[in-house]
């Protein structure tokens, strides 16, 4: 089993054992040790990794392209330490690590060559590709939120994965960069989406759903009826399995943008990129077992409310 977002001490211990960071003043001049090469188990299906998916030539396997697991994450110099720990944990707990392809979305203004070199040096056998995300895609759509960190354009890149990733990538597992996996990501990638769902994510129906939208939204019948005939629950977008073919067919990026445009005019929510996802998908998603995202873990250490990390597969 997997537990997401461990306490800070649980996250840093394996990280510090595996990587050493040099103290520098530049944003991404941290030096990390090289991770070992991870090999597929004998029973792993063979797969073909499209050369368009990698930033350099790597050893590839043949035949079934559908056996590849595609993982999308944002990559930023400020949070590179967490990203390195997340990548390592994915590989470490995978039965078929050579079948994993990472798709890293970076800000177009970032130093892509330095980010690429950092990943390549630490994970020389990793199959990955960097994609620049131009801030102007969303800069004019972002409204100020209750936390300035939520206003970063890269936080909205998850809404554009279907546009950014190659068309042959039909399904992707999206992961926030502040996590550590303790189970095989292939199990998560195989989450059934049913006949109609575009994405799967952990739902939390006990959460107060009204909290995520302003009184302006709920007092407007034409807006509040958005959730009519939908059992709308809060869900966490930090762990998602997305059918990109269905997303593209339904033009869901545009639907999210329409809500962001309305937000600029009416202020219908206070948070950043989450509420548009709720408006479009809440009540219409496939559930992901909560063991894949230990929601809130490490979020309130001050009051001693943090939960323990699950030990992993059983």
From TrEMBL:
Pfam families: Glyco_transf_8. It is an enzyme of class 2 (transferase). One of its GO terms (molecular function) is glycosyltransferase activity. Coiled coil: none annotated. It comes from the Eukaryota. One of its GO terms (cellular component) is Golgi apparatus. It is found in: Membrane. It is a single-pass type II membrane protein. Residues 1-23 form the signal peptide. The keyword Protein biosynthesis does not apply. Its EC number is 2.4.1.-. Keywords: Glycosyltransferase, Signal, Transferase. Its main location: membrane. Pathway: Glycan metabolism; pectin biosynthesis. InterPro entries: Glyco_trans_8 (IPR002495), Glycosyltrans_8_dom-fam (IPR050748), Nucleotide-diphossugar_trans (IPR029044). Belongs to the glycosyltransferase 8 family. This is Hexosyltransferase. It comes from Cynara cardunculus var. scolymus.
